[in-house]
Amino acid sequence: MATVQTSERGDAAGREPGSAGGGTAQRAIPTFGEPELAGLFAALKVAPHPMLKLPTVEWVRALMAARPADWKAELVAVLNRRQQRIRLAEEDPLWWGWEFDCWLDSDKLLAGSFVAKAKPESGNLKPEGYTPEACSILGIYGGNRASKSVYAIKRGVQCAVTFPKTLLPVMSESEAASIATVQKLAWQFLQPHFGQLNGKRDTVFKINYSQANGFTDRKIVLPNGSEIHFLTYGQDPGDFEGWEFGAPAHTYTTVAAELKAAGRWVPPNIGAVADESMPLAWLKMFARRLKFRRARLLWPFTPVKGITPAIKELVGNAAVCVESRPAELLPRQNFPDVPKGEMPYIRECVFPGVKAMAIYFFTEFNKFGPAPGRTYYQEVKELLDGKTSEIIERVAYGMARDTVARAFPKFGPWNMVKRHQLPTIGTNYFFTDPAGARNWASFWVRVTPGDRPNYYIYRDWPDAQTFGEWAVPTEREVNDSNRTGWDGDIGPAQAGLGLGIVKYKQTFLGMEKIQVSRFKLEAMDPYHVKLVQRAKGGAEEVQEEIAERYIDPRAGASEHMAEKGGTCIIDEFDEPQYDSKGTLIGPPMEFIPASGVNEDEGLSAVNDLLDWNQEQPLMPILNAPRLFVCEDAMQVAWTMDNFTGRGGAKGACKDFADLLRYMALAKLSHIDAVQARGRPGGGF
């Protein structure tokens, strides 16, 4: 079993310089200054170290005053312990190697114990003391030489060594990169413990490493049955769908309990390490398969070439900054949700079905360097002198922006709200876009009172939670001549359910219905709470009030064949439908053709609702957007985060973008008495 994990943050004596104990009586202190201390260090062959401070003159003088008889022996003992700690780190990097604060914060994110330190002067949407739940995917983005891969490989190897039968794939962009980087790192951690087994034949373990060729068959089998596989992204992720990654859940629970009882550190359950530029297909495969053993994916990546589809999917514009850190090389306002002169340090991501976080290892966090007295950060600073802010963000701070022009550039995490944050008072409207054989993209929006009302899109259909994504990021190459995929590829939610007019009426009205007996106040829409509390006579269900319903003007007015001859969708919705027994099954539902003006005007109207001064702090009413999206409306959020318009009429998320245009151009407002408007289908 593994030896105890120790923290790197204490000095060699287990205390900070200046903490020497002893008496407090005043004594004559012998002359002792910098020359004497330097001479003592030279005699003992003690040198500066990035992680362990040397005793200062003041510390030694305090020790001399406290222990005049044996101060020198105590000082030598402290320095010897310091040298022993340095030697342990060199001899056994797996358990005694140096670790930085950002490594420990990564562990906390994996365990769900990280506590944010928000800054009140920032636009940060997460309060101080916020603790995100444990994540399954941790993106470790950082600058050059920021120790991202070292952390990820070390944690993966610690998991495999500690927990029997662990299955750990370690990914690389190519076989050459695997041998030169991740396999070399893995051997550095394993060699002190298993070097004597290298090349020996055995029916249980398989360890055969050479610096030139890496591990034989790109595989390690440890004596405890754990396997480490070195794979490349050129392989088909579909070939690994049957694998269960990480330590078996019951094994992890049992061993972790034993370690905790003994007061020892418990490594996280690492199911995969995906080094550098992981393709989206691999990310999605890991997201599906990690759940079986409740394991974690570590993804260390320096985005020197900019954003990739996988990064955009994990850390898109909907990601919320949880904590930021000062960025010496970027003193300007870098992001709206962090203070001036800072860059995001930890962000909470939005990824379907999986809890994901991102942490950014700044290059300056690495205290080591290529030579004594020189850090990697100093080298990177010189390299970046005169470079653009975009390059500095990538190389020193691990941040990649989406350089493709989005149709809604000011949409971000500040536009996302939870269900319980929706307004209690407001007027509801409905928008839909008929699409032939495909499902009809639809959403509901609530408009608040006031001359400049806020818009809250609180529901969409077909919803991602039930039907999957409406559109997904493309995995193909896109450019100006091949625009298919700019606005995503078609997702499973577009597959038609074969619904007719009656079924669509029933579906929409069903979404607007609230079952009183099943209603729970916790984390519910406050508007629904009001309706339930207002319900009289013990009603089993109550219905949302919809002021007006809007429909795509072309599809809604297009004639098609029906039982009564030529008619249009708007007319059919306006008619009641009955079953064979004369029971009303499709009440009249009045639709208004949405504005059909040009697309540019509609997009501008949406961006007017999103506009706010991002150079100033975010402040409700005074400086804030007016369009918000409930986190449940994932199809709308994805569209606003990804739609460019470059995909043309066939863009996969264009339907929801059209609905946003119709909404913005409708000049919606709050109505005090919805029930007084029109027929039941309009205000139901």
Residue-averaged pLDDT, rounded? 87
Terminal residue distance: 66 Å
Query: Sheet with the most strands?
Result: 9 strands, mixed
Strand content: 15-25%
The number of distinct structural domains comes to 3
CATH class membership of the largest domain:
Alpha Beta
CATH architecture assignment name of the largest domain = 3-Layer(aba) Sandwich
Looking at CATH, the homologous superfamily of the largest domain is P-loop containing nucleotide triphosphate hydrolases
What CATH calls the topology of the largest domain is: Rossmann fold
**DSSP strand count:** 26
Q: In terms of per-residue confidence, which ranges show pLDDT below 50 for 5 or more consecutive residues?
A: 1-26, 675-684
Tell me the structural class.
alpha/beta
Task: Specify the overall morphology.
Answer: elongated
The amount of helix comes to 25-40%
Radius of gyration: 31 Å
Strand order of the largest sheet: 5-6-2-7-8-1-11-10-9
Map the helices and strands.
Elements lengths: L33 H10 L13 H10 L4 H21 L1 H4 L4 H11 L25 E6 L5 H15 L4 E6 L2 H20 L14 E2 L3 E2 L3 E3 L5 E6 L16 H13 L8 E5 L5 H10 L6 E6 L7 H6 L5 E7 L15 E7 L7 E6 L14 H8 L5 H9 L18 E2 L9 E7 L7 E7 L7 E7 L2 H4 L3 E2 L16 E2 L10 H11 L1 E3 L10 H9 L6 E3 L2 E6 L1 H5 L1 E4 L2 E4 H6 L2 E2 L5 E3 L5 E2 L5 H12 L16 E4 L3 H9 L11 H12 L19
Parallel strand pairs: 1-8, 1-11, 2-6, 2-7, 7-8, 12-26, 13-20, 15-26, 20-25
Antiparallel strand pairs: 3-4, 5-6, 9-10, 10-11, 13-14, 14-15, 16-17, 18-19, 21-22, 23-24
Helix pairs in contact: 2-3, 6-7, 18-20
List keywords for this structure.
684 residues; alpha/beta; Rossmann fold; Nucleotidyltransferase, domain 5; 3 domains; seven-stranded mixed β-sheet; 17% strand; elongated; disordered N terminus; disordered C terminus
